[in-house]
Amino acid sequence: MDIMQRIQAQVDSAPVVLYMKGTPQFPQCGFSATAAQTLASTGVEFAYVNIFEDQEVMQNLPAFQDWPTFPQIYMNSELVGGGDIIVEMAQMGSLKAAMEEATTKFNDK
């Protein structure tokens, strides 16, 4: 399996996937910390990938959906964007609903 197929498999493996620097418990950059905290604040489960644990993913993820920075958040296998976008969604009150919808669709597959 090439790296793009591996990334696609990761994105497809859960309804919400966060690519971040570090882990939700030990984030290694402020943007990743904010993204993980924002997702966690909804109470909806999400998966994460620590890009520091896989250099191939770290190097190739920006080309996967043409998003150059980290963190990256995927729902239903589609790129939502970076941390700023989910913070905005949380402020508007739409993040939890989007994550719940992604989870429902994922479980109905």
UniProtKB/TrEMBL annotation:
Limits of the Glutaredoxin domain: 16-80
Alphabetized GO MF terms: 2 iron, 2 sulfur cluster binding; disulfide oxidoreductase activity; metal ion binding
Keywords: 2Fe-2S, Iron, Iron-sulfur, Metal-binding, Redox-active center
CDD domains named among the record's database cross-references: GRX_PICOT_like
Entry keyword annotation includes Iron-sulfur: yes
Residues that, per the record, bind [2Fe-2S] cluster: 29
Top-level lineage group: Bacteria
Keyword Iron part of the UniProt annotation: yes
Family listed: Belongs to the glutaredoxin family. Monothiol subfamily.
Name of protein: Glutaredoxin
Species per Swiss-Prot/TrEMBL record: Candidatus Thioglobus autotrophicus
